[in-house]
């Protein structure tokens, strides 16, 4: 009981019993805990100081039809290099990021137990991604589900047709939010705001401070009910004793 009260007291003061600022998802290729990975490959290099991905995962993130998910970027003809670059960065972000704790949710899926939901992306990242892919083609809005996997890799489902990117995703917002089942949330926040997550960066990882901001905001919103719970639990404890 005293240990439980101590944990509640920690929560009421704005700290965490579990370190959501430095954790890995329980998913297909993620490490159990984040840590240094000095040999990360190309677009995944920014996470080398603290990563949830291994060097092998980072290398496979750059390959077409890699063993990670057998996903075919070229399902509607060859994807342009400038478009594919963003999907590689997106994969590195998903596989390597240790600061996604505020947005990790349980997932009832055969290939992972956790996922991310509504991660607030910086405006520049989402808009540049859409801009660099706008001349490409796809046959689906939500790339998480609905593919024909009969060949072992994803193909356009029967009855669908390859359509220009901008006809499938009219805006950067529609692309970022729909393509991975609302894993991302489009925002008008810019990178210098410190309130949005960057899919890719140079230098030290700016996303830790962003995650910390959202965790602290959530905790401030919960401070009254947590404090009240602490009070009621303490009262019950002392009534039992006396």
TrEMBL record:
Pfam families: Folate_rec
Domain of life per record: Eukaryota
Family (UniProt): Belongs to the folate receptor family.
Protein name (database record): Folate receptor alpha
Keywords noted in UniProt: Disulfide bond, Signal
Keyword Protein biosynthesis: no
One GO cellular component, as annotated: external side of plasma membrane
Example GO molecular function: signaling receptor activity
Species assigned in the record: Xiphophorus couchianus
Sequence ranges assigned to domain Folate receptor-like in this UniProt record: 23-198
Range of residues in the leader sequence: 1-17
């Amino acid at each position: 009981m005293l240990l439980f009260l101590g944990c509640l007291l920690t929560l009421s003061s704005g700290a965490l019993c579990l370190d959501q600022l430095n954790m890995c998802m329980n998913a297909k290729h993620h490490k159990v805990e984040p840590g240094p990975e000095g040999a990360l490959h190309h677009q995944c290099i920014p996470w080398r100081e603290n990563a949830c991905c291994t060097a092998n995962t980072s290398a496979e993130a750059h390959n077409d039809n890699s063993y990670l998910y057998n996903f075919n970027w070229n399902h509607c003809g060859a994807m342009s290099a400038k478009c594919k670059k963003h999907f590689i960065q997106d994969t590195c972000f998903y596989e390597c990021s240790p600061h996604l704790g505020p947005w990790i949710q349980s997932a009832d899926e055969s290939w992972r137990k956790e996922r991310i939901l509504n991660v607030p992306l910086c405006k520049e990242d989402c808009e540049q991604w859409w801009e660099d892919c706008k001349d490409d083609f796809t046959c689906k809005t939500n790339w998480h589900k609905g593919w024909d996997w009969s060949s072992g890799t994803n193909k356009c489902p029967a009855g669908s047709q390859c359509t220009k990117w901008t006809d499938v995703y009219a805006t950067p917002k529609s692309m970022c939010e729909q393509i991975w089942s609302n894993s991302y949330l489009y925002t008008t926040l810019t990178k210098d705001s410190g309130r949005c997550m960057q899919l890719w960066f140079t230098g030290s990882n700016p996303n830790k401070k962003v995650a910390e901001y959202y965790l602290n905001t959530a905790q401030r919103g919960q401070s009254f009910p947590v404090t009240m719970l602490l009070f009621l639990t303490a009262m019950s404890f002392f009534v039992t004793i006396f």
